[in-house]
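Q: Hi! First time doing this. I have a protein sequence and I read that you can turn it into a structure. Is that right? Here it is:
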Amino acid sequence: MNLDKYRNLTRDTEFKYINVHPIQRGGVLTPEARKAILEFADGYSVCDFCFEGRVDLVENPPIKEFTGDIAEFLNMDEVRFTAGCRHAKWTVMATMLDKGDAIVVDSLAHYTSYLAAEANGLEVFEVPHSGYPEFRINPENYAKVFEEVKEETGSYPKMALLTHVDYRYGNLTDPVEVGKICEDYEVMFMLNTAYSSGLMEINGKKMRADFIVGSGHKSWAATAPIGFVATNYEYTDSLFSTSKIRGRWSGRGFTKKEVAFFGCSPVFGAPLVTLMASFPKVVERVKSWEKEVENARYFVNEMEKIEGLHQMGIKPTEHTLQNFEALPFHQVAKQHKRRGYFLYTELKRRGVIGVHPGLTKNFKINTFGLTRKQIDHVIWAFKDIAEKYNLEVED
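A: Yes, that's right. Below is the predicted 3D structure, encoded as structure tokens:
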């Protein structure tokens, strides 16, 4: 066994290169979080003064108060931390639904939404998207699918899930409209904000969400893995139900432990502390979301000056995550000795990483948090590569 490969691990991407990776921009740590992680890097590091047996009730560091602040920030009533957004979705489905129940999801939902439903034995129905090139989700179609579910199963679905911003095209779908439809049909509404909360302002009650799930490491400048689930008082007893089991011989009970969170949410150190340390900056940065979108639209406009490149999804973009179709680069790749890896290599030589290695036909980029100077450098890199391979670039 050669253990040397595990020694002196480094990662210089965020300092040496401009990273445009679609799932990493919103998770870049703040300086405050980088400092805090050194203090709380040890396992169970927030448990020094745990008296209640649950991480959400720890008062030093002020985690208990922090849960209330996040709830206020999202305009919801209560919050719990989870091992990522996928755990949050699973938790809601596991506690609020029964095996065989129907759930309606948008057809751009993350794969973990489907797996969470599968793990809980649910039947999944999909709201279709509009197809190429916009892939738009029409909120009104939730009502149509609700009716289809009733026609097929005899009753309306128990829950609907909307991916606020989808991970494939960065399309933003209005949750208020979906929430209204769910209210009319008395269907519980879960909003997946993995790519929105922490980046833009979220008002859960205005959006009529019964449950909001999110990702700290994707959009709240926290280290992985951490997510959250927020809900309102109507559902807290069910979602946060505590253990009732007793040992038949010992009589042992665990009455403070919340079942769906494995007794105590598994975020006992660095993930939770970085989420806390970044929170003041997150509260401020959501106020600049319009500027971020403006930068993203500028980026798209410049990228589309390269022959044959165009942004897929809703236009103009309403998010910093974009998906580009790039058939000319794909044609170059067919003749290049490195095939599809040529684009990744050429970008890295120019100080840009984050485009998935091997992809040229289409690829995703996220500009969140980049300065205009950095965005201009990324644009220059793509245009310079295009010109190197004799693709036309508008002035």
